[in-house]
Amino acid sequence: MPETSSDNRPIACEAIILFADIADSVEVAHERSVEEYDEFVQQFQESALQAKPAVEFLKADDRFAYQLEARGDEVLLVIQPTAKGLFNAVKGALAYAFVLKLSWIASRYNLGRLRNGQPPRDCMVGIHKGLVTVRRRPMPEREAAEGYAISFAKRIQQAARGGEVTRILASAEFESACRTMLPSVKFGKSVLTDLKGIGGRVRAAELELIHYSDVLTSATGVLKSLARCTDDATLALLRQRALANPTETWVVRLAAGAHLARARLVARESPNLAVKLLDDALAIWPDFTEAHNLLWSTLFIQGRLVEAVRAYQRAIEIWPDVALVDGTLLSEADEMARVSDAAGVYAGLADVYISHGHFAQGVAECDRALTWDQNRADVYCLRAIAKRGLGDLDGADEDYSRAFELDESVADKPPDG
User: Fold this and answer.
1) CA of 140: how far to CAs of 17, 30, 137, 364, in Å?
2) What's phi and psi for 89, nearest 5 deg?
3) What is the pLDDT of residues 84-118, one digit of tens each?
4) 3-state DSSP: the chain helix, strand, coil percent, rounded to 5?
5) Average pLDDT value for residue range 135-142
6) Separation CA 249–CA 242 (nearest Å)
7) How far apart are alpha carbons 274 and 299 in whole angstroms?
8) What is the pTM of this model?
């Protein structure tokens, strides 16, 4: 947190505040012994700490400070950014919410419930953006945030119990920040909500879709921290529950997200395993755009081009605002291509398009390939074929000539006609 004044007067600053607690923990307290309840709470606190890598990257940047506390069955996260750092602060809060919920659903307590055919016990999350004050506390000595905005975030979290999708509820202020900085994050309809102890009704919206590529890359340690949550046995239990209970939307989304996280972790070293994990994710949630995204790029790298195009086209159908050049879908391919032959990846897609008579798309993919490597004779040959298919004979001749300049071994250009 920012430095306090010499006389310990509080310093006001804007912050992102996240509050989380376990659903119906009072019920568990009544059902269990004191020792059993203490173990139950301890596992939730372990989940809170396991999610810490989601915000640990903020410490490496002097534009941020954060406070993370796990107290009983509650978790408080306060991220204090500068104006320039608000984007990563928003990402950090979303990343923490996702990793916390996945860590908790994979806790010993919840896995035991899954094995017994019971629904996992959820944790509810509320996120707010508002002003806090920071002062140094003497016992133990540390800086901590206080203020109305923290109480407001807690009330938002309590209202999340009525959620139907992720049970992550955002205040209007945090929702506005997300819409500005992370448009891929989707919210449900903003509604007026009564908050206990808060005068009047306030607007809040449930988070319906976290774009996992936004949060799973927010810290290098996040994927590794999820290793315990994504082992084979845990994934099998989550998959079984999600497939048997498709109306438990929050379980479906978390189970699919867990499979995606594991696939991202192994994609480079074990692409076949990644494909299987992604197939499982899509069996759980058929409209999971990002699973189609990683599936298509992984298939692409393996040279399974026809399957890759089908996965790509499916993702476009689900999320039509994903753009060919600038959209999230191809940014994932770009990420994968950095460890492979990027020009070859896009040339392969161009070849598939051209072989199916989609010449305009073939030209576009050749253009992308040439942005990576302008000295690929085979790409100029492909683009020449596509241009001939479009009737651009002059353009085709130019590309064939350029290919021959680069590599005299390329086949003679076909005759006109």
Assistant:
1) 22, 32, 7, 61
2) -65, -40
3) 578 778 888 888 898 899 899 989 999 999 999 99
4) 55, 15, 25
5) 48
6) 8
7) 10
8) 0.71
What's the CA gap between 197 and 199, in Å, rounded? 6
Instruction: Kindly state the tokens that stand for 157.
Output: 């979290």
Write the CB contacts of 323 (distance below 8 Å, at least 6 apart in sequence). 330
347 vs 36: CA distance, rounded Å? 59
Q: Where are the alpha helices (DSSP H) in 160-216?
A: 172-181, 212-215
CA 227 to chain centre: 16
Amino acid present at 306: V
User: What number of residues does the chain have?
Assistant: 417
**Can you tell me the distance from the alpha carbon of 322 to that of 78, in angstroms, rounded to the nearest whole number?**
33
C-alpha dist (Å) from residue 39 to 36, 48, 68, 198: 5, 14, 21, 33
Residue-wise pLDDT tens digits, 400-409: 999 988 876 6
Domains parsed from the chain with CATH numbers: 11-215 (3.30.70.1230), 226-337 (1.25.40.10), 342-406 (1.25.40.10)
